[in-house]
Amino acid sequence: RAVVRVSGAALALLALAAAVRPAVFTQTTGGLWEVSRPNGGRRNICVADPTMLAQYEHLRANCSRDVIRDQESRAEIHYTCQGGAFGQSNVELLTPRSLRIETQGISDNAPFHYVLQARRIGNC
């Protein structure tokens, strides 16, 4: 399994986004996350802040996020990225180490819509 590291410009954006960090993500921590798709695909990614998982389709993109709904165990986040890409994610906290993420939007000029299961499996 490949491990993807998110850093550099993405970390700078996280600092800006920290002010609008939904409650769901205050109960989780960064680290190594295993992200599974319904088709059986699995990927390990290392993120400093799990808020990045809300823009999974655009992990490496320069995006701005707006928190639409912020509840203790659920959040709705809309984001827009440079180049016209955008998305909307509904994140549900299952446990502090497990999230369900339903995400949809436009990537590479094509629509996407899928549900992810993410679980923290360790440190990076």
The rounded Rg comes to 13 Å
* Uncertain ranges: 11-19
Across the major sheet, the strand order is: 1-3-2-8-7-6-5-4
Structural class by secondary-structure content: mainly beta
Instruction: Average the pLDDT over all residues and give the rounded result.
Output: 87
Pattern of helices and strands: EHHEEEEEEE
Q: What percentage of amino acids are in beta strands?
A: over 45%
How many strand units?
A: 8
Distance between the termini: 14 Å
Biggest beta sheet attributes: 8 strands, mixed
Supply the number of helical segments.
Answer: 2
Could you estimate the helical fraction of the residues in percent? 10-25%
Query: How would you sum up the global shape?
Result: globular
Overall description:
With 124 residues, the chain is mainly beta. Helix content is 10%, strand content 52%. It contains 2 helices and 8 strands, in the order E-H-H-E-E-E-E-E-E-E. It has helices spanning 9-17, 23-26; strands at 3-5, 31-36, 42-47, 63-70, 74-81, 86-95, 98-107, 110-122. The protein has an 8-stranded mixed beta sheet. Strand 7 and strand 8 (110-122) form a beta hairpin. The longest helix has 9 residues, at 9-17. The model is unreliable at 11-19 (pLDDT under 50).
